[in-house]
Amino acid sequence: MTEAVNLCVGLAMGLNLVALTTGRLPSLIRIVAVQGMLLGLMPLLLEHWAGPIVFLMVLGTVTIKGFVIPYLLRRAMRAAHIDRDLEPLIGYVPSLLIGAAGTVAAMAFAGRLPLLPEHRDTLLVPGAMASVLTGLLLLIGRTKAISQVCGYLVLENGIYLFGLLLVHSVPLMVEAGILLDLTAAIFVIGIIVDRIQRAFDSLDTRKLTTLRE
Amino acid sequence: MMELGLILVPSAAALAAFLWPFERSRPWFLIGVALVHVALSLTLLVAPPAAPLSEWIGFDPLARALLPTVSLLFLGCALYGVPYLALRRERSNRAFVASMLAALGLMSAAHMARHLGLLWVATEAVTLASVPMLHFNNSPRALEATWKYLLVGGTGVALSLLGSFCLGYASLYGGGSGDLRFISLMAQGEDLSRPWLLIAWALLLVGYGTKMGLAPMHTWKPDAYGEAPGIVGALLAGGVTTVAFAALLRVRAVLDAAGEAAVTSRTLLFLGLLSTLVAALFLLATRNFKRMLAYSSVEHMGILAIAASLGPAGVWAALFHVWNNSLTKASLFLSAGNVRRAAGAATLDVASGMSLVTPRSAALFVTGVFAVTALPPFGPFFSELQIVRVLLESGRGWSTAGLLACLLLAFLGLTRITFSVVYGRPSAAVRRHAQRFPETPALIGPPLLLLGASLWLGLFTPSVLRSAWKEAVDLLFVLP
Amino acid sequence: MSRLLHALVSLVLLLGLAPLLPGIVGRVKALVAGRRGPPLGQLYFDLARLWRKDIVLSTVVSPGFWIGPAVAWVAVLGAALLVPIQPLGAVISFPGDMLLFVSLLALARFATVWAALETGSAFEGLGASREVSFAVLSEAALVTALVALCVQSGATSLEAMLTPTSGAAGVLLAAGLFLVLLAENCRIPFDDPATHLELTMIHEVMVLDHSGPLLATILHGAAVKLMCFTALLVSAVLPTQRLDGWLAALAWFGGVLSVTVAIGLVESFMARSSFRRVPLLLTTAFLLCFFALLVAWNEGGA
Question: Which residue in B275, B358, C138, C259 is a FRET match for B368, CA 20 to 30 A apart?
Answer without folding.
Answer: B275
